[in-house]
UniProtKB/TrEMBL annotation:
It holds the Pfam family MFS_1. Residues 22-456 form the Major facilitator superfamily (MFS) profile domain. One of its GO terms (cellular component) is membrane. The lineage of its organism: Bacteria, Pseudomonadati, Pseudomonadota, Gammaproteobacteria, Oceanospirillales. PROSITE patterns: MFS. The keyword Transmembrane helix applies. It is a multi-pass membrane protein. This is MFS transporter, DHA2 family, multidrug resistance protein.
Length: 472
């Protein structure tokens, strides 16, 4: 770990001591944002009872946080060009901390939903540029190791969220789920102001229409996919998909003509970047699908309790936490796409073995297969993220970071929705949905293997040729 904070002659990024504190700023900010996305899940029955609302309405306490975050990731990544990543991260942290206080003080559903939406905005501002800030903080030679830390932190948030929420609810009331963010947020805010790298403004304008079209596109598609997974009316689902598609087409046309595009389309001209984004999307589809499928498998077919099911999930994120930093360090020395392909192959084998589980399988059989999936996902994630970020010029790293967060969010949402679609078929079962996850990983593996010969330069810093405003 100490090598991450050594300063060598010619290093870019921050000096070692400042780098150490800045990394803790990103770790704690990411943990708060990820924990709040899934720690509240376990408190929904308590929230519904205390707020005297139907469970179907209480679900929006979680859904609104995720939806607001999903639709604003790309816009925040572009906004960082106007206000700088440092100020955007600090601003997002301020909003998130104040909104957490508002959530803790709310005693009715409507005010709580407003504060949760603001929390989602603050979290999106931090998460949209988090990976990009790692690239600014660490020297290029340590980018893979830095992204390994990022993968470990996200996995820790997903792994500990339900357990931490459950333990907190046994000793305190639900407002403390939000109130704990306030002192932590204040400390992180002070550290962020002192240590995050200062930079100059890179853009003189912001594409407001592009941001609006992007938000409508992403919001409509997320709600449509949610409708697929919850048996919404066909008319409503088709309408949302049509709205998302139409606004998506308009967004692309807008980006081709805008003087300061929200998302420069030239970024996708780099095959390494486009393939890394595609691989990430497919892998997160599989993970989102698997997490829902396994919950049904363990509880409905294998008769485990919800608490036992949570423990059976633990090897997956735990393996990511253990292998993620190592995979990042290896990606700094060896071909990142080769490592990512190996990880995807292990993930494919692990998912296939889980799909073949019998209902009377022993606990140890479940645990080692789940751990194999986590091992594969952890080995894939850090090298793939390094490939995605390093394949674009540093000036576009904020845009790349926004794309990375968006494809991850959409992958998870689509995976959950696909479970509902598959289980709606009369002859389908949980195993069929898991095999669909295997198909997504197989496609990701094919795309990853295809790009192996492309990985020659570790980090790209020369600019893309940007089209002139109004050109196609």
């Amino acid at each position: 770990m100490s090598r991450l904070f050594e300063t060598r002659p010619g290093d870019d990024g921050l000096p070692g001591p400042q780098r150490r504190i800045a990394v803790w700023v990103l770790i704690l900010g990411t943990l708060m944002a990820v924990l709040d996305a899934n720690m509240v899940n376990i408190a929904l029955p308590t929230l519904a009872r205390d707020l005297d609302v139907e469970p179907s309405r209480a679900v929006w306490i979680v859904n609104l946080y995720q939806l607001v975050g999903a639709v604003s990731l790309i816009a925040f990544a572009a906004l960082s060009e106007l206000v700088t990543r440092r100020l955007l991260y600090i601003g997002g942290l301020v909003v998130f901390t104040l909104a957490s206080l508002g959530c803790a003080l709310a005693r009715e559903l409507e005010p709580l939903l407003i504060w949760r939406a603001l929390q989602g905005l603050g979290a999106a501002a931090m998460l949209s540029i988090g990976p990009s800030l790692y690239r600014s903080i660490f020297p290029s030679r340590l980018l893979g190791s830095a992204l390994g830390i990022s993968a470990m932190v996200v996995a820790l948030g997903y792994a500990s969220g339900p357990s931490l929420g459950g333990m907190l609810l046994t000793v305190a009331d639900w407002p403390w789920l939000f109130a704990l963010n306030v002192p932590v947020g204040c400390v992180v805010l002070l550290l962020a102001w002192r240590t995050l790298p200062r930079e100059t403004h890179r853009s003189r304008g912001f594409d407001v229409w592009g941001a609006l079209l992007s938000a409508i596109t992403l919001g409509a598609l997320v709600m449509a996919m949610d409708g697929l997974g919850h048996a919404a009316s066909a008319r409503q689902t088709v309408g949302l998909f049509a709205l998302g598609g139409a606004c998506g087409w308009a967004f692309v046309q807008r980006q081709r003509r805008a003087e300061y595009p929200l998302l420069p389309l030239s970024i996708f001209a780099e095959p390494r970047f486009s393939l890394a984004a595609l691989v990430s999307n497919l892998a997160f589809i599989a993970q989102g699908l698997a997490f829902v499928c396994l919950s049904f498998l363990y509880q409905s077919q294998m008769s485990y309790s919800p608490l036992e099911t949570a423990w059976l999930f633990t090897p997956w994120p735990l393996a990511i936490m253990l292998i993620g930093p190592l995979a990042g360090r290896l990606a700094d020395r060896y071909n990142a796409t080769l490592l990512a392909s190996l990880g995807l192959a292990l993930l494919l084998v692990g998912l296939a073995l889980l799909a073949m589980l019998r209902s009377d399988a022993a606990v140890v059989d479940i645990l080692w297969r789940t751990a194999l999936c986590g091992l594969g996902f952890g080995l894939y994630q850090s090298p793939n993220n390094r490939e995605l970020l390093s394949s674009v010029p540093r000036a576009l790293s904020a845009n790349a970071s926004g794309v990375m967060s968006t494809v991850r969010t959409f992958g998870q949402s689509l995976g959950v929705a696909l479970v509902g679609v598959v289980l709606a078929w009369p002859a389908a079962n949980v195993q069929a949905a898991l095999w669909l996850g295997c198909a997504a990983v197989a496609l990701a593996l094919l795309a990853s293997v295809w790009r192996i010969p492309m990985t020659s330069a570790p980090v790209r810093d020369e600019p893309f040729e940007r089209p002139s405003p109004g050109s196609r």
